[in-house]
Amino acid sequence: MVSDLVLHDRAVAEDVEPTGVLADVVRFSWVDGPGNRFTAFLQGCNLDCIACHNPHTMPMRTPLARTVTVEGLVEEVRAVAPFLSGVTVSGGEATLQAPFVAAWFAALREDPGTSRLTRFIDSNGCADDPVWDLLLPVTDGVMLDLKALDVATHREMTGLGNGQVLHSLDRLFAEQRLAEVRLLVVPGHNDSEEALRATGAYLAHRAPGIPVKVIGFRPHGVRAAARHIPAPTAEERTAYAAWVAESVGVDLVTVV
Predict the structure, then answer these.
(1) pTM, 2 dp
(2) Which residues partner with 24 through β-bridges?
(3) Does the fold of domain 152-256 match that of domain 1-145?
């Protein structure tokens, strides 16, 4: 398989604008970063998460996905820009289409109608340094999903280890692009008190001062393999947040 970065190099050499494969857009979202945001969900993911809430975005191509140009998606944002705080690119995994995201963010930054909007990425962190080299110059913040701190648990939940994720966390923090860490807590998998206290301690040490969002698993919309998993109660979600906040700090932790 030819990587997106190889395709980017070819596009630069041939002066061809990269295109994106889009699953969907939400023109007004209050859950994908700060303020009211235009969120683009890109097709394709490099993890196989048991608790994925967007399983239709996992393949690189589906009959419902559409190919978009940079200018075409800029126009969609421009039409609603007066009502927005920013844009977020999600998925799937947005970094799999890094050349398109970088070109789209650069175009948004240069366009007078959209230049004031902040540009955020929602990412699972499974991206190499060359990907971040391409994206970070045009990105204001990254919301990083940490599925599990324990490598065996991460592999059991996603199919891969978490080495790239933890490296991405370190780099994003060092370059002041880490906007938030998101912890999806799935009962029976990563919800133990020991695991969440350890995660909080790790984040307090490696990314001090960064907000953490603790997200309780919901079965609505997930793939069939996870529909039997119960949603945590409000009391359980509160306990999750308290275990993380013990090290991170109460003011930096939110729970949903």
Answers:
(1) 0.92
(2) 41
(3) yes
Q: What are the backbone angles phi and psi of residue 143, rounded to the nearest 5°?
A: -100, 110
CB atoms within 10 A of CB 26: 15
DSSP string, 105-141: HHHHHHSTTTTTSEEEEEE-S---HHHHHHHGGG-SE
Q: What fold does the segment set 1-145 form as a domain?
A: TIM Barrel (3.20.20)
Give the DSSP H or E segment for 93. none
DSSP per residue over 149-211, as a string?
SSHHHHHHHHSS-SHHHHHHHHHHHHTT-EEEEEEEE-TTTS--HHHHHHHHHHHHHHSTT--
The topology (CATH level 3) of 152-256 is TIM Barrel (3.20.20)
First to last CA, the chain: 38
Query: Cα–Cα distance between 163 and 161 in angstroms, integer?
Result: 6
For the cut 50, the answer to whether the pLDDT of residue 8 exceeds it is no
Q: How is the chain split into domains, by residue range?
A: 1-145, 152-256
Q: Do residues 119 and 86 make contact, with C-beta atoms less than 8 angstroms apart?
A: yes
Burial of 138 (0-12, 13-18, 19+ CB in 10 A): middle
pLDDT tens digits for range 124-170 = 999 999 999 999 999 999 999 999 999 999 999 999 999 999 999 99
